[in-house]
Structure formats: structure tokens, C-alpha cells
Amino acid sequence: MRRACTSLTVLTGQTGHAPARRTGACRLALTTVAAVSVALLASGCASVSDRVVLLPQPDGRPSAVEVKAGAQRLLLAQPYAAVELRGQALQPVSIDPLVVRQRYGDLLATQPPRPQRFVVRFESNGNRLTPESGPVLDEVRKALAGLQAPEVVVTGHTDRVGTLDANDRLSVVRAEAVREILVAAGLAREAITVIGRGEREPEVPTEDEVAEPRNRRVEIKLR
């Protein structure tokens, strides 16, 4: 009897695609991204040629993945929701978390460590950190000390007070301020990527011109 093959694509970014990992003759793909689209291709195996399982985000944030096969589309939006490609048809299936760990534990163990995420916050209309951000930066320095060749992404954000262009510039200024703190702590400047997202990705959605302090932040991701 031919063994049915299974496929799961390991995607670790917020959007986009990543190559599948190979396990013997079968592909396995697991995803924990916030919103991606995965196109399944028949692999010539027996009854089940591909399977996608949505894993929970480590920090509990919601995630979703859209699976496409030809004209079919299915959205997975709950942890451990799954879909299989049988022939040319997508079929939603139920899968137990314990089964995922038992069946794919070896593959999951080969994934690179997840980025460590820290958030520091800012006073209104500038790049002055709040007093509460000091202990967070201490945690970042400790985490960096445990990494041999760290890569850091620093992303600045603003609230919705002011124009879109002004907030874009302010978010970069805030991210650059955090970069300088990390450089002063001994991190190589070239290891830091600075991004400004302005008011486009609020932690707390608000109406325009609302000064929401939780949105005035810089997110630091260490890998």
C-alpha cells in the first residue's frame, strides 16, 4: 500500500511565503503567520497530497492563513485549524494539538528560534521614552548578551495625531533613537534594521486625531 504524503509550509514572517521543509518523500508545512496566502500544488502522492495546519502564535495574538488550490479558497483562522488537499479538492479537517506534536515534533524541533519581541513606548509628539521603557531596555540588553550573532529589527509606530507624512517621519525618528541605544549597548549598527510604520499599524485602533499612548511605540525583534 502506498503511504499518503503530507505537506505543511513553515512560514515565520507576518506576510509572504517560505519554502517547505522536506521530510523523506513528503513535504510538511506549519504556519503561525498573521495573514498569508498559501497555494497548494499536487505532489503526486496518494490520497492526501498536502496538509496545512495553523499553529497558535506564541504570544496569543490572532493569526490566519488563506489556502488556495485552483479556484478554491479556504480561510484557517483558529489555532490547529487544518485543511487537506485530496486530489484537486480542499477539505477542512480536525486535528488534535497532541497529534501535531507527535506527528511533526521532529520537524518543529528543527525550526530556528522564534524572534524575541520587546516594546518600548514614547511620550507624545517626540522621541522621549516613557519611564516604564527603561526596564524593558534592560531586558533587551540581557537578551542581546545571550545571542552570538544577533539580528535586530526595530519598527517605529505613532498614534493618529497629525498628518500621515509627519507620523511616518516621527516613527523613523523613534526607531532610530532606539537603534542608537542598542548601538551604545554594543550591538553592531549593521545588525540593526530600522523601519517606520507611522500610524498604519496601531496596537489599539482609534479614530483620527486620537492620542492613544499605546500606539506611540517601537517594537524590537531579536533573532
From TrEMBL:
Region annotation (Disordered) ranges: 200-223
> Does Electron transport count among this protein's keywords?
no
Cite the Pfam families for this sequence. OmpA
Recorded hits in CDD domains, A to Z, give: OmpA_C-like
- On the tree of life, the source organism's domain of life is Bacteria
Q: Where in the cell?
A: Cell outer membrane
Instruction: Print the keywords alphabetically.
Output: Cell outer membrane, Membrane
Q: Where is the OmpA-like domain?
A: 109-223
Basic and acidic residues bias located where? 211-223
Q: Which InterPro entries match?
A: Bact_OuterMem_StrucFunc, OMP_bac, OmpA-like, OmpA-like_sf
Which PANTHER family does the record match to this protein?
A: LIPOPROTEIN YIAD-RELATED (PTHR30329:SF21), STATOR ELEMENT OF FLAGELLAR MOTOR COMPLEX (PTHR30329)
Q: What is this protein called?
A: OmpA family protein
